[in-house]
Amino acid sequence: MGSEAKTRWIEEEISLLKEQGLFTHIRTIESPMDGWVTIGGRRVLNFCANNYLGLANHPRLREAAKNAIDAYGVGPGAVRTIAGTMTLHVELERRLAAFKGVEAAITFQSGFNANLATIPALVGKGDIIFSDELNHASIIDGCRLSRASIVRYAHNNPDDLRQVIEETEVEGRALIVSDGVFSMDGDIAPLPGLYEVAKDYGYLLMVDDAHGEGVLGKGGRGIVDHFGLHGKVDIEVGTMSKAFGVMGGMVAGKQVIIDWLRQRGRPFLFSSAMTVPDAAACLAAVDLLEESTDQVTRLWANADTFKKQMKAMGFDTGGTQTPIVPVMLGEATLAQKFSRQLFEEGVFAMAIGYPTVPEGKARIRVMNTAAHTEDDLSIGLAAFEKVGKELGVIA
């Protein structure tokens, strides 16, 4: 078989994606990540980033990263269990635990890696995972790696969770896992109801709070704080790549679980730690969140304004409860055309279709942030109204 023949199937699959309007084109950012970005020499309003609090280009985070490089260099050199751990990582984990109100925390290279580390360390072959049917890909992959049996329950439905538990024979350990905020729809997990089920059956409860960190709870302390469930949720997974504005993942919870992850979390054991500037910038982000709730307040004010105006114009924004606003359009081709025309109007808001969301539920996902001003929102809303009318989405 020739070299071209070996990859012909890939070419055919890519051609099919293009025909179906599902091929992803990635735009190149030529400026810092902020409320406005430069793409192709044009300054456009940025509604794509998960930069909830506008910290990705914050001067204090930039300064912290620069100072840390001067003091500690750039990279950690190797995995922490082999080359030792740096004081920055130890301090970041201590501060994150205090911020979250838990016994301990551990950091990873990304939120994705945090899930890949945690789930297989807690359950394995012969065990059971009860997983929300709309959980993030990183949870799904972590579940698959664990080799435990996976039982899905209806989205955000504690009653269905209880029913599937009753219908499932559990011989080993069991883990209930859910996203905290679902990234494509912006709805919040019913964590109190999930906790009651976990408590009744004595199962571990894990929540991935990637889109709740810096968004929900007092000063952005997350979904557990939002519902007042401190000490009742066993594992909180999070990321520093969204509201914190940097990069990296974390797991917060009981000391015994964190100690176990240091022994058995494979991304911790077999991959180098966060870089020095990343860790330092994350520490600066924690400082900012502990000092003031201004960014979180501004984020929610912007989100409330945007959602109210979009609904008034006649757009379908689904069941969002957070600053994530899905503008539901249905077919992927319409969503991509809508995105392209928005860009022509100076608004960067990408179309999202299958397999990220189910077929027939393509959308534009708008990410409101604290980096946006009232004028920015007005510009974005005007562009949505114009394109929506041109494409017949709204009257």
Structural class designation: alpha/beta
Largest sheet descriptor: 7 strands, mixed
Please write the CATH class name of the largest domain.
Alpha Beta
How many DSSP-defined strands? 13
User: If you compute it from the alpha carbons, what radius of gyration comes out, rounded to the nearest whole angstrom?
Assistant: 22 Å
Tell me the CATH superfamily of the largest domain: Type I PLP-dependent aspartate aminotransferase-like (Major domain)
- The percent range for strand residues is 15-25%
| Quaternary form | single chain
Mean pLDDT: 95
- Major sheet strand order: 3-9-8-7-6-4-5
How many distinct helices? Answer: 16
Spell out the helices and strands N to C.
HHEEHHHEHEHEHEHEHEEHHHHEHEEEH
CATH architecture of the largest domain: 3-Layer(aba) Sandwich
Domains (count): 2
Low-confidence stretches: none
Distance between the termini: 56 Å
Q: At the third CATH level, what is the topology name of the largest domain?
A: Aspartate Aminotransferase, domain 2
Helix content class: 40-55%
State the shape: globular
